[in-house]
Amino acid sequence: VLENQDLQDSIKPQKVEFHSLNFNTTLHWQPGWAREARDALYFVQYKVYGQSTWQNKDECWGISSNVCDLTHETSDIQEPYYSRVRAALAGVYSSWSLSCRFTPWRETVIGPPMVTVVHSNKSITVKLQAPQSPYKRKRGSKIPMTNYYDLLYQVFIINNLLDEQHRVLVYEGKDKVIKIEDLRPGVSYCIVAKMYMPKLDHSSAYSSRQCTLL
C-alpha cells in the first residue's frame, strides 16, 4: 500500500493552468516528479464555479498529452471555471490536481490585429482586421474580438532611416482603414499595430511588421 501511495504522489500532475488567447482556451499541466510519470495517462474534468458536479472532458480522458482544449467548454465567457487533472500509471490513480479559477472574459489574452499595407508614392493605406474568436455566427463566420470588448486599434509607424526601434503612434480609434499621408518618397517605412482596451488600460502584443518602400 505504501508503494502505491508513493506512486500516487509521484505521478500527480503539477502546475495545472489555463492558457487562453482570443478565447481559444487550453488547459496545461506538467507531469509528476517521478521519472516514470512520463508514461502516465491523464484524465480531465471541468465545471463552472458553484456547480457541485464535475464534467468529464471525453476527448481528454486517458490521454498521454499534457494539454487539453477546453475552448468549447468555456464558451460562456463571463462564467468562472475550474478544471482538474489526475494521472494513472500501472493501475494506480493519483489524486486530482486543481487549476486556479479562470474567467475567460477577464483573463483571455487579446492578440494583435492583422495588418495589410498598400502604398502610393507619398502615403500608406493601412487595413486592419481585429483578431477573431473561435465562436461563430449563425452564418458560420467567426465573431471578432471587437464584439466582446470595447477595443481600439493603435497604429504605429517606424521610419527606418531614423531608428528601427522608434515607433510613432499615428492613429488610435475604431476605423479599419486608415491613410498616413505626407511621407517621403524613397524612404522605407514599417507599420505595426496593436489592440488597446481603454477600460482596463490593457494592450495586445504588437502585430508583425509590414514594411514598404515608397
The total tally of domains equals 2
- Specify the CATH class of the largest domain: Mainly Beta
CATH topology value of the largest domain: Immunoglobulin-like
Shape: elongated
**Helix/strand/pairing category:** mainly beta
Taking pLDDT < 50 over at least 5 consecutive residues as the criterion, the unreliable ranges are none
Report how far apart the termini are. Answer: 75 Å
Proportion of residues in β-strands: over 45%
The CATH fourth-level homologous superfamily of the largest domain? Immunoglobulins
Indicate the CATH architecture of the largest domain: Sandwich
Q: How many helices?
A: 2
Task: Please state the oligomeric state of the protein chains shown.
Answer: single chain
SSE arrangement, N to C: HEEEEEEEEHEEEEEEEEEE
Mean pLDDT: 93
Whole-number radius of gyration? 23 Å
Helix content: under 10%
For the secondary structure, the number of strands is: 18
Largest sheet report: 5 strands, antiparallel
Please characterize this protein's 3D structure.
The protein has helices spanning 2-10, 104-107; strands at 14-21, 24-30, 41-48, 55-63, 67-69, 81-89, 92-93, 97-98, 114-119, 124-129, 132-136, 142-144, 152-159, 167-173, 177-180, 188-197, 202-203, 210-213. It is mainly beta and 214 residues long. The strands form 5 sheets. Strands 3, 4, 6, 7 and 8 form a 5-stranded antiparallel β-sheet that branches. Strands 13, 14, 16, 17 and 18 form a 5-stranded antiparallel β-sheet that branches. The chain has a 3-stranded antiparallel β-sheet with strand order 1-2-5, with no helix packed on it. A hairpin with a 4-residue loop joins strand 16 and strand 17. The longest helix is centred in the first third of the chain and has 9 residues, at 2-10.
